[in-house]
Amino acid sequence: MNIVVQKFGGTSVRNLECQRQVMQKVLRPYREGNKVIVVLSAMAGETNRLLGLAKEWSDNPDPAELDSMVSTGEQVSCALFAMLLKQQGVKARSVLGFQAPVETDCAFGKARIVNIDEKKLECLLNEHDVLVVAGFQGCDEQLRITTLGRGGSDTSAVALAAAIKADVCEIYTDVPGVFTTDPNMCSDARKIDRIAYDEMLEMASMGAKVLQIRSVEFAKKYNVTVHVRSTFSDELGTIVTQEDESMESVLVSGIAYDKDQARITLVSVTDTPGVSAQIFSPLADKRILVDMIVQNPSKDGKTDMTFTVPRADVDQTIRTLEELKYEIGFEELNSNLNVSKVSIIGVGMRNHSGVAARAFQSLADENINILMISTSEIKVTCLIDDKYTELAVRTLHNAFHLDGGEPLETL
Amino acid sequence: MNIVVQKFGGTSVRNLECQRQVMQKVLRPYREGNKVIVVLSAMAGETNRLLGLAKEWSDNPDPAELDSMVSTGEQVSCALFAMLLKQQGVKARSVLGFQAPVETDCAFGKARIVNIDEKKLECLLNEHDVLVVAGFQGCDEQLRITTLGRGGSDTSAVALAAAIKADVCEIYTDVPGVFTTDPNMCSDARKIDRIAYDEMLEMASMGAKVLQIRSVEFAKKYNVTVHVRSTFSDELGTIVTQEDESMESVLVSGIAYDKDQARITLVSVTDTPGVSAQIFSPLADKRILVDMIVQNPSKDGKTDMTFTVPRADVDQTIRTLEELKYEIGFEELNSNLNVSKVSIIGVGMRNHSGVAARAFQSLADENINILMISTSEIKVTCLIDDKYTELAVRTLHNAFHLDGGEPLETL
């Protein structure tokens, strides 16, 4: 049987009218003879309402209880949506995390999917034409309810598509697809038709928040074709899939940015073996995500260590490191909150040199000073003063002809 | 191990302050070294909110989806309460219907408990000192969530107490216990210390809505001692238990009434064998609860058939019977909405004659006309004009000295 997985977020199911629109999306593949697995989030606002209640009850709510409570959001939206479908005469039912079952580890609040019983799912699909599956939730071995963390519904959808070998996993969102960059920042931004998993991972992690990053990892691992598209139109969106030759012929697929960054510099660190671990292990323990790291060449046994952290974690980062000042052995800690990251991303740059140089040159032409640089196989990231973010994005977008003009295939 | 089961309704858990009070009730047996199973309802208003949502979505919501949705009310209140307990350092956790598991049939919306796995419960009790169990819900063989119908949390509590052989099942409510009659109607009403299951069944079914009737049936069947008591004080309430000699020495234990009644009369019914079935089977099919039935002696092959139904079902009753007018063969259908039932209840009347006569006489002394009479072993019910309900209740309460004066042991 042909199976289509569709995922709709909280905004799409927030009230009866929206759910009726979603139903039309579901009925299309259904009427074409496909079985449909619909993955839903909680109605917009509901998860926050529940988290608010928990916070009123306890400063530090038990994570297992919190999951049991928060999971009711999807439980309600799925039941309501299944009611709508049944009223239309569709053989449908809701399926909760423990019913599918979506087995996870027991890391409440950020559980990872361990297994999805495709046999059980197949049975359910034999008896029903549409399954309305609660996203974001699963259950551990003890049948306790777990949740996958914010945005986990994307991961649920991709994992279900992988388990049942669906033809496609459609992720419906409020934008028409993945863009070459943020259209709010650059009016020339263009929808990308096809993008490789790795490119999408870089785009997502850099703040192009169309798809949850873990869901892309999952899609890549199980080779699930993901179609990111708009709830509000029938136009095709962006296909996220395996890298192919046509993708490699494009040097740069998109420009991502992240304004939520801060730079920390430890001045005159005593450069002994293991000092990096001494600095970064305590931060990792506190789950602070350190991103770009630059170590200056050592001079007289001293070096400067510069790195970026999310802006929200700056205070904790400073507190943590100041406490270890003598242990680590640095003289001074400087921080700069007014920085942002701008990246060019593309699998095509693997086989082409000169991409980074062109990026640096185009920024230089606009007098944008680059504070730090980091590169990977398919990405070049520059840290800049955040007041230049928009200018930098537009400049790079233009420099790599992402507005849909002549594609820049060679340098 | 000694196990205490406690059940708290929606009003008792409606906000943080109330849940803190409930916690004190739970901590008492806990500190005395007992294991405690706390059964909770949804926070007051939540179930209605959810039902309202469902009604907005569908005129006739799918019952299975409705159960999955409505059950979230208890899921939230239990998670919150478990958070409170854990914050106090109590080894506690919430347990949902499918986790216990409370196995039911699949009659969604009015499921019956089939089995409770006491082995699983024992395991949970070995690992935790307090289990916070979601009332009102269970799951069927397919792991679909079911609910037990309104007031089902009482049944959950008693069923859990039966399964785990708890020492007592405490049902906390907003009144101090079971009264000889409705204190709002009769200021002389007195709290009953001990009452037999059968008496309680008659009291409950007649509208003395302290305990859900099915929970009493359950308690009787499994011989669970139920203690109905107040959330707002530490005073003892009413023990509902097996009949004993002391109970039999009291002729009448209480006066119940039900104003929600209507009388239907079919005039000149052709009195052939099977006519009763012809009348009452279609009503039963529509789940209309026919209560008192009186058939006049037949005359010329014709009889009048009079019975009572809940007032809300009158329209449907009339519609159903009018459609079958020629099939059944009656001339006229009369209805009277202004009637109520008043009953005297007591296991003691089994061994004493004259109780009914005294009741009739005392009503007659007040010029209250009796429209219909029905009697059982432990109950005498009179249908009267509903404007006399209060007067009748007070008169009977007085006639049988229920105000706590000299007990009336012989006639």
TrEMBL record, chains A, B:
Substrate binds at T47, E74. SUPFAM superfamilies: ACT-like (SSF55021), Carbamate kinase-like (SSF53633). Residues 264-347 form the ACT domain. GO terms for biological process: homoserine biosynthetic process; lysine biosynthetic process via diaminopimelate; threonine biosynthetic process. GO terms for molecular function: aspartate kinase activity; ATP binding. Its EC number is 2.7.2.4. One of its GO terms (cellular component) is cytosol. Pathway: Amino-acid biosynthesis; L-lysine biosynthesis via DAP pathway; (S)-tetrahydrodipicolinate from L-aspartate: step 1/4; Amino-acid biosynthesis; L-methionine biosynthesis via de novo pathway; L-homoserine from L-aspartate: step 1/3; Amino-acid biosynthesis; L-threonine biosynthesis; L-threonine from L-aspartate: step 1/5. ATP binds at K7, F8, G9, G10, T173, D174, K209, V210. The keyword Transferase applies. It is an enzyme of class 2 (transferase). It catalyses: L-aspartate + ATP = 4-phospho-L-aspartate + ADP. Pfam families: AA_kinase, ACT_9. Keywords: Amino-acid biosynthesis, ATP-binding, Kinase, Lysine biosynthesis, Nucleotide-binding, Transferase. PROSITE patterns: ACT, ASPARTOKINASE. NCBIfam families: asp_kin_monofn (TIGR00656), asp_kinases (TIGR00657), PRK06635.1-2 (NF005154), PRK06635.1-4 (NF005155). Belongs to the aspartokinase family. PANTHER family: ASPARTATE KINASE, ASPARTOKINASE. This is Aspartokinase. It comes from Pseudodesulfovibrio piezophilus (strain DSM 21447 / JCM 15486 / C1TLV30) (Desulfovibrio piezophilus).
